Target: glucan endo-1,3-beta-D-glucosidase
Amino acid sequence: MGLSKGAGFAGLPAAVLLLFAMLLMGSVSGIGVNWGTQLTHPLPAATVVKILKDNGFQTLKLFDADSSILSALKNSQIQVMVGIPNDMLYTLSNSVQAAEKWVAKNVSAYVSSNGVDIRYVAVGNEPFLETYNGTFEGITLPALQNVQAALVKAGLSSQIKVTVPMNGDVYESSTDVPSQGDFRANIQDRMVEIVKFLNDNGSPFTVNIYPFISLYDNPNFPVDYAFFNGYSSPIDDNGKIYQDMFTANYDTLVWTLQKYGYGNMSIIVGEIGWPTDGDQHATLQYAQRFNQGFMARYIAGQGTPMRSGPLDAYLFSLIDEDAKSIQPGNFERHWGIFYFDGTPKYQLNLTANSNGLVPASNVKYLSRQWCVMSPSASLDDPQLAPSVSYACANGDCTSLGYGTSCGNLDARGNISYAFNSYYQIQDQLPSACKFGNLSGVTNSDPSSGDCQFHIMIKTAARLTTSRGGSLRQPVGLLMFLFMLFCTIL
Ligand SMILES: *[C@@H]1O[C@H](CO)[C@@H](O)[C@H](O)[C@H]1NC(C)=O
Ligand SMILES: *[C@@H]1O[C@H](CO)[C@@H](O)[C@H](O)[C@H]1NC(C)=O
Ligand SMILES: *[C@@H]1O[C@H](CO)[C@@H](O)[C@H](O)[C@H]1NC(C)=O
Ligand SMILES: *[C@@H]1O[C@H](CO)[C@@H](O)[C@H](O)[C@H]1NC(C)=O
Ligand SMILES: *[C@@H]1O[C@H](CO)[C@@H](O)[C@H](O)[C@H]1NC(C)=O
Ligand SMILES: *[C@@H]1O[C@H](CO)[C@@H](O)[C@H](O)[C@H]1NC(C)=O
Model:
């Protein structure tokens, strides 16, 4: 007893030093998450930052450089990847001055005096998607070069790295075997140039990998291969066995990079996740199965056959975004592990000892009232169809339709859902529930089972109460050290 106690005391200072060293090197690990902001009613930034901290997220990926979000991240100790939207690439590719302005305004201003821990700048987002018809193919590398030059000029290039989040089909394997991987033929030269540039500057390759999309696009895609529980016909790549699409896709990238001499380049999985609505395969059960399966891998630090060791990854996504384009599909508005109001959707353990997600606190809702189809209105009313079209076009009807959470509603239920969606998005304005005499407001919740008729949250602009003291100043570092101490002792 005495001996082990003595050893414990002797070990303490070393442990403290080690912890400080880890903190300084920024090697605090933990799954990251994407925070997208295309919502009609976003939660206050400070509320979202509290969700991040309460759930132990230490790394965060953004799609732009929103000043209210970056301000809310001050002193949070969260490591941030800020983003440059594709529509800015042209300007940045043409002008190093524009890149310098972007870096000064959106990076330097926050890292210097404001204590925001920016680690990466994502230049564009999936710019080589085939749906863009090549619009960004010629300008991505020049934009990357100009942003890198601006970071160098600002004296930030050793701590902040540039990268480009790529969609997982910029490379492929014609036989599905990872070792046959290569960049897509029509963009091969451009990809090799970008990879060389990233490598020259110590930057990572960032890729978004989506088994859900493979399943959505291809009716013959084997469902079990999308998940992490094993698959009856695994791929055997010279003795390396692949039982899930994520791992095979990741290693296809490793082989591809290796083919061009960049086999050691670090890889970030910029987005990984599963949506919960808007498609027959977008269910709470599948999303939990996928995300928890991925987290089990992540927590175990298991890696892939080609890259053992921990993965670097960002879940997609933190919160549902009801204003996202549904051009790719109705599921697009349902990627969150939280609903729009910060309520967890299902149990998800992000660490070995966690017991599910921690919800947002102090969320302010509008009144408990809903807009529904009036019981006296007739289904034959000629005004019904245009009214529903209008409500869905300006509201969100992505939870209606085959295989969705409200897919079992009858015709009246459908119409009520559409009316209510529009009414809530319009902040329950009385005029937003006046579809002739087809609609009326009710205090009785029309929700049933998984089909939720939401009540909208109050947005910052509509909150009458004071917004003072919005940022909780966290005693983060001390708390963190204390917790680690407790773990060690
Ligand atoms: C900073 O980022 C914001 C948000 O992405 C963008 O609107 C703005 O134009 C950027 N500022 C500069 C000077 O480029
Ligand atoms: C890409 O091309 C297709 C077919 O020519 C067209 O329908 C689509 O609008 C184009 N998309 C973009 C983003 O230019
Ligand atoms: C990659 O790293 C390993 C171990 O650090 C080393 O043995 C190998 O030579 C490196 N390969 C390349 C292509 O740099
Ligand atoms: C999460 O952890 C709790 C407590 O350890 C456990 O009861 C639960 O089954 C876990 N959930 C999942 C989805 O693994
Ligand atoms: C409800 O609406 C969805 C989507 O608009 C439609 O596919 C479905 O057929 C409707 N169901 C009924 C019973 O009207
Ligand atoms: C609804 O309004 C129309 C025109 O305003 C009227 O003709 C009709 O009688 C009303 N129906 C009911 C059930 O009140």
Summary: The chain has two domains: 26-333, 370-456+459-488. The first helix runs from residue 2 to 25. Confidence is low (pLDDT under 50) at residues 1-28, 462-489. Residues 132-133 surround 2-acetamido-2-deoxy-beta-D-glucopyranose (ligand 2) (CB under 6 Å).
